[in-house]
Amino acid sequence: MQKIAFFGLGNMGGPMAANLVKAGYQVAAFDLNPTALAQAQREGCLPCENSEQALEGAGIVISMLPSGNAVKGLYLGEQGLLQQLQGDTLVIDCSTVSAEDACLVHEAARARGIRALDAPVSGGTAAAIAGTLCFMCGGDTATIDAARVLLQAMGSKIFHAGGAGAGQVAKICNNLLLAVHMTGTAEALQLGVDKGLDPRVLSEIMRESSGNNWSLAHYNPFPGAMENVPAANGYCGGFSVALMLKDLRLAMDAAAGSASSTPMGALAENLYQLHGASAENQQLDFSSIQNMFRRPAGA
Ligand code: NAD
To answer: Where does the 3-hydroxyisobutyrate dehydrogenase-like NAD-binding domain lie (predicted)?
Structure first.
């Protein structure tokens, strides 16, 4: 049985690791958060006390971490994982980080003869649980081919975006667009409701019309308009406002680097910044941006 060392068992990494177990892999799991680790154990992963224990006998390393600093901290430097791995190890970082940070990991891996991919994902927690994530891979073709069966245990769509870091570029373009259509969807739904429409009826009309988009059809932000989404559950779980803000900052930094014009992304970033000004909102799912559009009581 192939052994995988899996780092980061949060909202996304937890179900991804569980799907690898279901596919027959032995998954040695490590997370700084004991609650996440205990949940992974319930899903059939082998809980590890530290990274050294997780790496024992593992030919594959997967990470799903919250930030570029966490990824660099895990892989780089004298104490980093890349110094401890065998040359034939396959390293797949699925976190969303800057293309520059991804390239640092690629370069350090290449220097030690280790194969690496940046492979951020889209689809949210529902797709992570269902094993239908979309992977956007950066790296060489041979490494993607070597990783394909493994990625198929967690996802249904595997794209080769280009060389090192290209997966991350695709991911921030996608999330810039996601933020724009989520805020636009929330705005349109609130307008309809303020004018007396039922959000379910309005959602159905727009889903069948030219306003249809993923936020509306699969992740409706208006409470009561859709079952089994964070809006139906007080905006708990899912993809946090803090993580969306991180991705929008990555997108704005990338745009500045290429002198690209991104006014829609900048506006979405402003809205999420305002919304995320309270620490409480930062932890809510990003569809809670709906609350920004609610009329104050009595208005
Ligand atoms: P999360 O905060 O739920 O989980 C991250 C986990 O990583 C936490 O359990 C944390 O304790 C752990 N961690 C942090 N540093 C660690 C380290 N050095 N070693 C081991 N564990 C460590 O975040 P998430 O929602 O699972 O997102 C993870 C990544 O996936 C982010 O980069 C995010 O942008 C991306 N992403 C999230 C979603 C989503 O819908 N949540 C969708 C697509 C992509």
So the answer is: 165-290
Give residue for tokens 């409706």: 220
Task: Please tell me the distance between residue 243's alpha carbon and the centre of ligand 1 in angstroms.
Answer: 9
169-293 has which CATH code? 1.10.1040.10
Asked casually if ipTM beats, i.e. exceeds, 0.85, the reply is yes
pLDDT bucket at 116, cuts 50 / 70 / 90: very high
pLDDT at 297: 73
Q: Decide if 237 contacts 230 (C-beta within 8 A).
A: yes
Confidence at residue 261, expressed as pLDDT on a 0 to 100 scale? 98
Atom of ligand 1 nearest to the CA of 36: 9
Q: Which residue is catalytic, options 22, 72, 157, 171?
A: 171
Question: Is residue 264 within 8 Å of 180, Cβ to Cβ?
Answer: yes
SS3 state at 196: coil
Measured from the CB, is residue 15 less than 6 Å from ligand 1? no
User: Domain map of the chain by residue range?
Assistant: 3-163, 169-293
